[in-house]
Amino acid sequence: MSETCNSRHFSWLMKSCFPNPNDKSLTITPHPHPPPTTLSSLPDDLLLECLSRVPSSSLPSVSLVCRRWSRLLLSHSFLLLRRQLCLTHPSVFAFSANDSGIFTATLSLIDSSWELSLCLPSNTLSLHSIPRLAAIGPRIYIIARNSMLRFDSWTRSVVARSPMIFPRRKFASAVLFHKIYVAGGGRSEAASAVEEYDPKIDTWRVVSNAPRRRYGCIGAAVDGIFYVIGGLKIGGECGNDSSRAAATGLEANMYASSMDLYDVEARAWLRSRAVPGGGCVVAACAAGGYLYILASHAVELSFWRFDARRKYCSGNDGGAAGSGGFGEWCRIRSPPMPTQIKLDSTVRFSFVGVGSKVVLVQVVGCIDDLLRRSGRSERGMKEGLVLVYDSVGGEWRRAADLPEVIRRAACVSVEC
């Protein structure tokens, strides 16, 4: 072996170590690095799994990140995941309008406290009576006779939405499958028309005609059924015949203590139901698969539970004859009203179903005024009494009264 490197050997070595830059056949293309994985690059199902674990206090900020995240947070799938993780916090939302403005308050059943805020100036919404509220996720729809607002409980923003096709007052409303249904509370055609609102396209449409025309009715929804409860009869024949007038009065009473059932998927009406014992329905709501109805009998109140768990039964009209489920009535303990309350038309109540609990709110009527009119001087209960019924334990308890600025309140349950 040679101990020295001649020029030929050295030249060959250099060429082998340093390829000719002009030789295109030896060009090496670098491989691009894979892009980093981010939350936004995840498919919707995985992103929902991540977002569903965000603390409730951060949801308002997260909803403002982008339109895609906002859409997912408002989806029904997100709410179901939050329920499975036991991260939802149901609360009672109260709405009130007066000369100072439109106020909102939220009741937390965990610490039984109200959080009050000013929503809008008083001239924003035309109100001739207490509006109806409907909640879809964190968004609350304030439905008045000729207008509707959407209030976002996360961002505290308010936007105007399309009003109902027919102007209504004291009508029934409920939410089913992320759509709002209303019935009753109008004249002639409006009283019988059932309207459906799709929030995705901001559009109302008539989907059916009710078998009865009701005014002052209450709405509730369980297992795909829209319940139109109570109220007074609208229309009918008029005349001087006393027997006809008596029949009309009897029919009006039947309206006040009955309810119509509309299957929104089948677009069909089921058999109407009557509240046992008669009376006039003054409040109603759905909670835990049941309907809870408060009826007035002039001098006392009766509290009823209706088994509305239709999907768990089989047979004609949603239930089997011996199933012991759908359609059964049960009288339960009435709310423990203070002895100062006089049950007349000046005192009105609202029911709100919150999980397995029923929240009773006295929304109209100052009991101090009732006492003064009756000649008694003792101090009574002011307007805004709040009672909570636990359907599991069967007991009532007192909660914090409505804030004093909240009067003639409309209430709804919000779950987010």
Ordered list of secondary-structure elements with their pairings:
Layout: H1 7-17, H2 44-51, H3 59-62, H4 67-73, H5 76-84, E1 91-98, E2 101-108, E3 113-120, E4 132-136, E5 139-143, E6 148-152, E7 158-161, E8 172-176, E9 179-183, H6 189-192, E10 193-198, E11 203-209, E12 214-215, E13 218-222, E14 225-229, E15 232-233, H7 242-256, E16 258-263, E17 268-274, E18 280-287, E19 290-296, E20 301-307, E21 329-332, E22 348-354, E23 357-364, H8 367-373, E24 386-390, E25 395-398, E26 410-414
Antiparallel strand pairs: 1-2, 1-26, 2-3, 4-5, 5-6, 6-7, 8-9, 9-10, 10-11, 12-15, 13-14, 14-16, 16-17, 18-19, 19-20, 20-21, 22-23, 23-24, 24-25
